[in-house]
Amino acid sequence: QVRLVESGGGSVQAGGSLRLSCVGSGRMRDINAMGWYRQAPGSQRELVAVISNGGNTNYADSVKGRFTITRNNAKNTVYLQMDSLKPEDTAVYFCTGGRWLVQYFVEYWGQGTQVTVSS
C-alpha cells in the first residue's frame, strides 16, 4: 500500500502562483511514477502532469508552459509548481501514484487539496 499526502493548496488571484507538494510513504517500490490530477465542480477528473522515477514528464495541453512537475526521490516527494494561474485552474488537485509505461495507470490517490483562482 502507498499513502500520499498533499499540501500547499489555497486561494490566489489570477496570474499568481502556488506550489503543491505530495509526500509518499509505504511500498513506494510498487510505483514508478507520480502525478497530479484535478477535478473541477461538475467535471471529470483530468490528468494535469505526471513524472516517472527517471524524471520523464508529461503535461496536459492546458497547463504546458505554466505548470512544472518535479520530484525528490530521496524524500518520496513530488511537487507541482503552478504559475500564471487562471480561474479555470480552480479545482481539487489530487496526488497520484502508479505505473507509467505507454500510459499512466493510477493505483493510489491522495485526499486532495483545493486550489481556487479568482479573477
Number of strands: 11
Structural class comes to mainly beta
Radius of gyration, in angstroms, nearest whole number = 13 Å
How much is the average pLDDT?
97
Could you describe the largest sheet, including whether it forms a barrel?
A: 7 strands, mixed
Unreliable segments of 5+ consecutive residues: none
Counted by DSSP, the helix tally is: 0
Order of helices and strands, N to C? EEEEEEEEEEE
- Termini distance? 40 Å
Strand percent estimate: over 45%
What is the overall shape? globular
Helicity range: under 10%
What this model shows, in words?
The strands form 2 sheets. Strands 2, 4, 5, 6, 9, 10 and 11 form a 7-stranded mixed sheet that branches. This protein has no helices and 11 strands. 0% of the residues lie in helices and 59% in strands. It is globular. The termini are far apart. Strand 9 and strand 10 form a beta hairpin. By secondary structure, it is an all-beta fold.
